[in-house]
Amino acid sequence: MRIYLVGYMASGKSRLGQDLAAGLEYEFLDLDDIFEERFHISILDFFDKYGETHFRQIEQRLLFETVSLKNTVIATGGGTPCFLDNMSFIRDHGLSVYLYWPAEALAERLIQVRKKRPLIKNLAPGEMDEFIQKHLKEREVFYRQADILFDMKQKDLFSLINRIRIQESIDDSSF
């Protein structure tokens, strides 16, 4: 089974993804890391040099490559499910988990690392809350299509693993 983690920037997809993969005895893959390793450029620099549209096209190709993976937790980028019918692909080819945080908590998490994030790098601290609230509202239309909504304030990894195991047994019995 492939498990796709979706959620806003700094929602914990990479960190929780590693813990989840270990708990399930799965492999772990971070699409952002794969992009940077393959193209030898940071996503921030790629955005500056080539633009978001070109990035999203490459990101989609990387996402499509995951279809051959088995027993893997895949951390997507914050925008991955929001472009080019990627959320449909994610839902059709694996189990999707939305790592939910309220906008205020995301703003707190992002304030210190905003310079590394292409969409918020030039925002002043006072602009962060308003931008994140508006942007998250736009993206949640996609995130909330996930099979599982996981409240990151609870961070009950054991509960999430159990929910995934139940889903695995349902999927296995449907064949």
Sum up the structure in keywords.
alpha/beta, 5-stranded parallel β-sheet, 175 residues
Task: Spell out the blueprint of helices and strands.
Layout: E1 2-6, H1 13-24, E2 27-30, H2 31-39, H3 43-50, H4 52-65, E3 72-75, H5 86-93, E4 95-100, H6 103-110, H7 125-143, E5 148-151, H8 157-173
Parallel strand pairs: 1-3, 1-4, 2-3, 4-5
Helix pairs in contact: 1-8, 2-4, 3-4, 6-7
TL;DR?
With 175 residues, this protein is α/β, with parallel strands linked by helices. The chain is built from 8 helices and 5 strands, in the order βαβαααβαβααβα. The chain is globular and about 50 Å long.
Describe this structure in words.
- There is one protein chain.
- The chain has helices spanning 13-24, 31-39, 43-50, 52-65, 86-93, 103-110, 125-143, 157-173, and strands at 2-6, 27-30, 72-75, 95-100, 148-151.
- It is of the alpha/beta class.
- The mean pLDDT is 93.
- The chain has eight helices and five strands.
- The chain is globular, with a radius of gyration of 16 Å.
- A five-stranded parallel beta sheet has the order 2-3-1-4-5, with helices on both faces.
Helix content: 40-55%
Overall 3D geometry?
Answer: globular
Structural class: alpha/beta
Rg calculated over all Cα atoms: 16 Å
Mean pLDDT, as a whole number?
93
Q: Could you give a short account of the major beta sheet? A: 5 strands, parallel
Low-confidence stretches: none
Cα-to-Cα separation, first versus last residue: 13 Å
Seen as an oligomer or otherwise, the chain set is single chain
Give the H and E element order: EHEHHHEHEHHEH
Based on DSSP secondary structure assignment, what is the total number of beta strands? 5
Count, helices: 8
The spatial strand order of the largest sheet comes to 2-3-1-4-5
Report the sheet-strand fraction.
Answer: 5-15%
